[in-house]
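Lab notebook, bench 4. Continuing the backlog of folding jobs that were queued last week. Each job is logged with the same field layout so the records can be merged later without manual cleanup. Today's entry covers Fe2OG dioxygenase domain-containing protein, a 343-residue chain. Filled in by technician R.K.

JOB TYPE: sequence-to-structure
TARGET: Fe2OG dioxygenase domain-containing protein
LENGTH: 343
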Amino acid sequence: MVSRHELSRHELLSTCLLLAIFMMKAGNAKSETWGGLPEQLLNRASSMHTKAGAADFDHQPWVEQVGKHPKVYLFHGFLTDEERRHIIKLAAPEMKRSTVVGEGGKGVVDNIRTSYGMFIRRLADPVIERVERRIALYTHVPVSHQEDIQVLRYEKTQTYGAHYDSSYDKGGPGPKYRLATMLMYLSDVEEGGETAFPVKSEWADPDIPRRLEAAGVRFSECAQGHVAAKPKAGDAVLFYSYHPNGTQDVASMHTGCPVIKGIKWAAPVWIHIDEFNPPLARPTGLEAAPRDPGMCEDRHERCGEWAKAGECTRNPGFMTGQGTTAPGACRRSCAVCTPCSAG
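JOB STATUS: finished
OUTPUT FIELD FOLLOWS
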């Protein structure tokens, strides 16, 4: 069995600090828009310990860095069985041939990508919102910087050729470019279907391939010799498209290897340097569930504690929703609204 190599608190916070510097340089973002989470949650995310029977908000996968170039982190048990089944159930009736970004940003069909897919709007329902907030927690980037969750289905021989998730110009990445990708696996794949990095990739530990082989993990020919991840239901892979200095990481080129046996369900979420607000006219599958703008409530049992500790001022994005498109978690405790009287 592969040994558990958890990130130390120092390593994780060092990575987050580099990302904060990058976002301020590349996206001209204010420092308070990055990592707008209460200190208690930052500490909890940094420890990365599995917690049996944890509440939804506290669901904690364990993570190991598997790629040095590019930076690739494997989250074991990122999604619960309920969450991944829910995502598939929402997506299955809406699946259409996947597209790639063409001229003018329009989606076009291309044989480089032969899967079927659809999008689920941000905050579509409580389960989707929970997953999106977990992504924000572990990437330290607000939900408002995420694109809608894309759900993909790959059947036998279907693939996604080598590509970058974000382009790069001489002037830098710009405000609308994708900083990172969180790729969630919704199903196991018997053979093939790996996510592989075929250009100048390097394992974080040269011993990882041996440990994987000893654990019975077998890569297809497409993934052999490269940093790669084999789909496992509930796991997720986080990788970065840029270096902290704002230059593109050429090693972030990746491919979805052909499925040889089985069916692959996956759900990538692209994370932007600045807030991402797609045009309302863009077809994205399910519409977001309407939310009462006058709702005044706390969405976590520790809101009162965080408010007393001053988090309403230090972390307004998370606590009250200030400066983001997401509802705040603790609006009532932060006294930014007035609850309706009974009756």
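OBSERVATION: The chain has eight helices and 17 strands.
SIGNED: R.K.
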